Backbone:
């Protein structure tokens, strides 16, 4: 009789415990999200882990722990958290998108595409997914697929400046400079404060060897974002092309100090050493840039020049052949 009387009380206590557990989990999630928004990653991680103590398969906490790791460039750790979230809940689409971003950073482009394919199958009207596909196909140098992806994203968001800029950059890579210009000028009309527009326009004028105009555009980009490492590096590149080597070195070194992961800056410093006669230093930095990011423009061409100056005919020819296959330069530039 006593057991029968105690059972409802015990059940009530258990039910209250379950309710309290859910409330606690959500409270930890809210606190973690607040810390994440404030970029207090250590505190955010602590709150999310507290939630996981209560529920080891709480996918929001797992996903957000992945995001904490991603922001800290701990990509392997982020990958593990996103995969854990997917294993716990195979239809948790946010984790697929986030994991595709990690695969992109790890240069595992085909795995990234697989995760995006999963999203497209479930949510085919999500423009950011097509935008991400465009970025991946650009890295794979499949510019036709990249254009298709960006154009699909544009169908959903015809006035999104970032889509227009990236589509313009694809035309730039294809050396279709007039088409690129049209898109970039449309982007400027939509948002004259978008610095990426002027950066891209500057690079087009570099390829046209119109260096005064290239400098005008990059200065406009820098007026909007004075310490952007990519813009500083690109101004350094213009200085290199116009043989203002001292000015080039100042910009390139500042760019590297602001972002040590920018492979283009190491390429440019390699070009600087090539122009100043330090061939071994040039090869070292150009090779470093190639390892960091094989997509870096004209990297094979400049490595060909460096090995040519060093007198290594075989290596020089090898890199010039790669440059020709990738259409990095015209044949008469070698």
Residues:
């Amino acid at each position: 009789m006593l057991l029968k009387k105690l059972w409802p009380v015990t059940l009530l206590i258990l039910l209250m415990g379950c309710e309290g557990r859910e409330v606690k989990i959500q409270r930890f999630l809210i606190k973690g999200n607040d810390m994440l928004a404030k970029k207090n990653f250590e505190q955010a991680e602590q709150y999310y882990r507290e939630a996981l103590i209560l529920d080891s398969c709480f996918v929001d906490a797992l996903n957000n722990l992945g995001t904490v790791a991603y922001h800290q460039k701990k990509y392997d750790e982020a990958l593990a958290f996103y995969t854990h979230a997917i294993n716990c809940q195979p239809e948790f689409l946010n984790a697929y998108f986030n994991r595709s971003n990690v695969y992109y950073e790890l240069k595992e482009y085909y795995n990234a595409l697989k995760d995006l394919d999963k999203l497209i199958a479930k949510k085919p009207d999500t423009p950011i997914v097509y935008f991400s596909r465009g970025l991946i196909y650009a890295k794979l140098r499949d510019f036709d697929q990249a254009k298709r992806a960006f154009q699909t994203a544009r169908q959903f968001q015809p006035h999104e400046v970032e889509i227009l800029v990236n589509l313009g950059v694809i035309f730039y890579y294809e050396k279709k400079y007039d088409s690129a210009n049209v898109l970039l000028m449309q982007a400027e009309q939509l948002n004259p404060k978008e610095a990426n527009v002027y950066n891209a326009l500057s690079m087009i004028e570099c390829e046209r060897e119109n260096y005064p105009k290239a400098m005008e555009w990059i200065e406009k980009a820098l007026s909007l974002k004075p310490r952007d490492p990519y813009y500083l590096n690109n101004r350094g590149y213009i200085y290199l092309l116009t043989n203002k080597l001292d000015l080039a070195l100042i910009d390139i070194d500042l760019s590297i100090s602001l972002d040590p992961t920018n492979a283009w800056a190491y390429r440019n410093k390699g070009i600087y050493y090539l122009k100043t006669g330090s061939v071994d230093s040039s090869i070292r930095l150009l090779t470093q840039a190639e390892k960091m990011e094989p997509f870096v423009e004209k990297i094979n061409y400049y490595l060909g020049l460096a090995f040519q100056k060093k007198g290594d005919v075989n290596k020089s020819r090898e890199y010039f052949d790669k440059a020709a296959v990738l259409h990095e330069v015209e044949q008469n530039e070698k």
The two ends are 97 Å apart (CA to CA).
